[in-house]
Protein: Cytidine deaminase
Amino acid sequence: MENFSFPFQQTSGITLPAHIQQLIEAANKATHFAYAPYSQFRVGAAALLADGSIKTGSNHENASYPAGICAERGLLSGINPLDKQQQILAMAVCYTSNTDNTTPLSPCGICRQTILEMQLAQDAPIAMYMCSPDGQVIYVEDAAHLLPFYFSSKNLKNK
Ligand code: THU
Structure:
C-alpha cells in the first residue's frame, strides 16, 4: 500500500500575517450575510485576489434544501480564474452556529471540487485558511491537499 500525506499547520489566527488576518476578518464578517434559517450554520468565505482585493460570499439556504448554496461556491461564482488580476492567492472560511462546536470549518466535497477547478484553471495554488469560531485556524498551502485523487478535465481527455 502507498500512503498519502500533506503538510498543514494548526495555529491561532493572531499569529498569522496581517493580510491573512484581514482575509479571515472579511470571512468572519461575511457570516452576517448568510441566510441559514434551516441549519443556523452561518458560513462566510473570503478570497484574496492577485489585484489585492478581497471578495466575500456566504451560504444561502432554501426551503427546497438542495437549492441552497455554500458560501465558497457563492463566492467563487463571482471570480474568473482566467483573468490574471482575479487569480485567487488565498481563501478563508469561517462560521458561527448554534452549537458549542469549535472544529475549524471543513469545506464540503462539492466545494473542494469547485475550489480545485479554479486552482487548475488559474494554474497557481490556492492557500486555504479554515477557521473556528474561537479563532483557531488550519492552514494548507495548496487546495489539492484537501482532495486527493480529484477528478479534473484531464480525466475527460484521451491519454
Ligand atoms: N456550508 C457551507 O456554506 N460551506 C461548507 O463548506 C459546508 C457547509 C453550508 C451549507 C448549509 O447552508 C450549511 O452550511 C449547513 O450544512
User: Anything to note?
Assistant: Residues 9-147 form a domain with the Cytidine Deaminase; domain 2 fold (CATH 3.40.140.10).
